[in-house]
Amino acid sequence: MTTKMRIAVLISGKGSNLQALIDQASQSRYEIGLVLSNRPHAKGLQKAEKAGIPTAILDHSQFDSREAFDTAMIQIIDSHKIEAVILAGFMRILTPIFTDHFLGRMLNIHPSLLPKYPGLNTHQRALEAHDKEHGLSIHFVTSELDGGPVILQAKVPVTQGDTVDSLQKKVQVQEHIAYPLVTNWLASGDLIFKNNQAWYKNTHLTTPIQLTEL
Description:
single chain; about 210 residues; alpha/beta; Rossmann fold; 2 domains; eight-stranded mixed β-sheet; three-stranded antiparallel β-sheet; 6 helices; 11 strands; globular; Formyl_transf_N; Phosphoribosylglycinamide formyltransferase
């Protein structure tokens, strides 16, 4: 039997993408070895416990600096023999201490078509700009906020009458398909980070893969 890549999933909230990763794990090349939250009452922790996945809580408010918090996270993650880190609604800006340690081994999913709308409130910003389409981006994490090389995007139409809530739901449907897929690419070795670039099946991704083209 092929050894699976051990991943840690980092969450801050309800963990809907975590659940998608859990649901696909048995059919994938990854196994979730740890779920870590910076918020003690994150509902996603219950999803992990129900699935029998080890959990850890590290309350960022108990640390004097971001660097101290990130160093403590590294120690916990490494102690679980984790090979890759998957950010799934983890609402913390990471310092270079953390991003450099896991460079090429860490993914994030962002609810916009990067480089549009890095940061927060992406659905609201797309509506205010009267965009015709919106979506998600999955990218390697670097020290630049939401700035690492983008691997895959999924687009959704913005229709008349859409609200922040309806747009978020459209995007989340695509997230739950796309994130386990790309995580599996990383675990299988098809996806790698080389020369600060994303490579898929030995091809440099000069533009993101589109989910609809797969």
